[in-house]
Amino acid sequence: MKPLLLKGGKLVDPSQNLNTVGDLLIADGKIAGIGGSIAGPEDAEVVDCDGLIVSPGFIDVHCHLREPGREDVETIATGARAAAAGGFTAVCAMPNTDPVTDNQAAVGFIVRQAQRAAAARVYPIGAISVGQNGEALAEFGEMVGAGAVAVSDDGRPVASAQLMRTALEYARTFKIPVIDHCEEPTLSAGGAMNEGIVSAQLGLKGIPAEAEEIMVIRDILLARLTGGHVHLAHMSTKGSVELIRWGKDRGIRVTAEVCPHHLSLTEESVRGYETNAKMNPPLRTAKDVEALREAVKDGTIDLIATDHAPHHYDEKEREFADAPNGIVGLETALAVVVTNLVEKGGLSFSDLVDRMACSPARLFNLPGGSLKRGAIADVTVFDPSERWKVDPSKFLSKGRNSPYTGMTLVGRAACTIVAGSVVYRSGNSGRGRETKRARG
Amino acid sequence: MTTKTTTVLDSRAVERTLKRMSVEIVELNHGTDDLIIVGIQRRGVQLADRLVKMIEGDEGVTVPQGSLDITLYRDDLQTVGPRPVVGPTYLPWDLDGKHVVIVDDVLYTGRTVRAALDELADFGRPDAISLAVLIDRGGRELPIHADVVGKKIDVGPDERVDVMVAELDERTEVVIVPKSSA
Amino acid sequence: MTRTLGKDLLDLESLTGDQIRLILDTAEPFKEISERAIKKVPALRGSTIVNLFFENSTRTRISFEFAEKRLSADTVNVSTSGSSVSKGETLVDTARNLEAMRIDMVVIRHSASGAAHFLANRIQSNVINAGDGTHEHPTQGLLDILTLRDRFGDLKGRRICICGDILHSRVARSNIWGLTKLGAEVAVCGPRSLLPNAIDQFGVRIFDRVEEAIEWAEALNVLRLQFERMTAGYIPSAREYNRVFGITSERLERAPRDILILHPGPMNRGVEIDSDVADGPHSVILDQVTNGVAIRMAVLYLLAGGKPELAEAAKGGSSRGREERE
Predict the structure, then answer these.
(1) Is the Cβ–Cβ distance between A275 and A318 less than 8 Å?
(2) Fewest CB atoms less than 10 Å from the CB: which of A141, A142, A166, C297?
(3) pTM (2 decimals)?
């Protein structure tokens, strides 16, 4: 493997309080030198990063890669390549596959498929309960031994408080987070979108914000009771943010994530019965979006994850109530966050990198998240000012279900490096194109 | 080719013409028995109003007066632009044994009268149907003729005959206008 | 001069007050046709209309069928039940098949909200929503409004209360949109568990007790209570519903004025409405049915719009209406 010399980019690494133009040298899969002007060995491949930002590799702790079971809509290979195209050097794959990833063999399968893909890293998440049935605990130890980095029944909530308690206690042995999809099932049953004026006008059954908030406070209290680490998936309401603050103020080990779509779209996107605006938890109101953006800025929400959920065109092309929940997000996440939080919202690039790279690594105990000398060379190089039009037919993901279709967004991955190898390079990477220089 | 409006009949002339027509209608029917006068929407209705009043004045009999909206029987309904407004149709009598006199303002291609005949056929079977028009401007596209004619005039294809009645248009007169004007 | 309705009639939410008035005005002459011996006019001769009913409904389907046949259109009825998911043939495929058969108009009733929009966005034929899930039932709203207009004249400022399960009612939504666009004052009355949470943003008054509604209203539109609501636990029983919310003659006797009674049908006699009220002197329920055919004829007539390009090609001149073609 040749050394890589990334020249002249803006080095943004909050783990070292770094935010300055300089060079980065990668050798033998590790960071070999950082900052200032680096000469580099003769055989090094030089990557011109003028106008680009160079940061620790982004990590997406929440995505659905559909393999095994639904290889028609995504495979670990296509998902890993889509992740790399989005600037992610690693993703964590949720276990709601078919069959469910609830044992060491299944976890091992994902690890091997990911190695074959040779794009972004894929860390499996194991199920909390066998078959995600919400009854019997799965074998956390065996799954972690095979490579699982967390447990979750995502796709579904953990309806039983007793099971959630046990999972939090048991997970302490293996020092992994328990990720919960917060949804009180009797309140949300049959719901297709946020409960509010839009659902009332469209004649669609709604899911009230309280369905999420009831489980948020439950999980926070159980984390307090057990001393375990609960990670709240895809937060979507103002109320949830307030409850997380309450928990953190009391030193409870709760962490939370938010998805780019909940930072940028509201229930108004559903008007016209647009199935690409249908996901769970649903798009909420402008007040919720506002509160979530503030929470990302002040750190109440620790990190940004995509909840990438590809579906087949045919599945989404039907009556709204019957369409499945979920949208793809790996290839638009960075742009949505830059366009909505950095350009308009006052989030600094330093904080963006923290929420998308440093915090995921730190909170999930994953390698990466830093460009310190000697760290693994998982690096994201991105253009913070490239304007581009979202065209799902060009996605590397098999999924095309994006609500951002046709929109012009700002921010795009230019070059993604995993373990010192380039796993993605955009057509526009680094040479003589007319874009504005990196800011802030 | 005219570029301005020409008045063919002024208010008084229209009255005189209608008076003569009302007498001709009674003559055609040999009296007022079994006579029904039916105006075609819209201005045929106002003309029928006046004819019935004139006949009442002369004969002391109020002839039954109906109205017919032929919009739904038009042969060009599928191709004409925005949907035309459908007016009221009022024909509450049994038409058997009756002599129906259709009244319209202008007879041109004959298609309106054809539509009226089709519609009347859906109401019943009169003994006879006659046609009375204020203006016959020629240009027939169907074999239709009027039995009672107010005035025959010659008008080119690039001109239009407008009949105005005080009840709808503030004044009563018949004019020829160039087609290009609104 | 007429204003057009566009390609489809999917809801009353997207219509202007003027467009609603256009449909009501157009329905007037069509009422008269149903009184004739020969109840037929050739206006839609040669048009093919499919009644695509995914949900059982005899009354609405028959009403549409009469409307279509009285306009001389050719009609085909397709009735299936269940969602497209369980059917095998998806709504998309149904839409494309209809288009391939060159159907002129489709009247669709479906159990999923948004189904009519879904179809209309994918086929060129005119689409008429005959009720989609709990979203809207525009022709029902229109015939209710026509019935009220027949009695009240101008609807501006008139006080109309809709009683019952607003949460699940497409009839209620269409009525609320249509009446508010015509300037009426609208209220709703029912148990809170059957009112949408966001009802306060609909621009309507809310009465928790039917006695208050009767005190205020000039007309009541009484909605059918579906038995599924009880099995799903929204209210405890039909008996309690009748005792607390039922429109009974005792309650109406205490009204300060004569109140018109409407009901979209079919009625659950003894539940939301008592028989003596439904059959009583203030009920206009049968007028609603008569008006239903006229409204549907008016809608079909207005949507089956002309294709002026054909007239242009044929005549080589402009087609301006009757005045030119005597």
Answers:
(1) yes
(2) A141
(3) 0.87
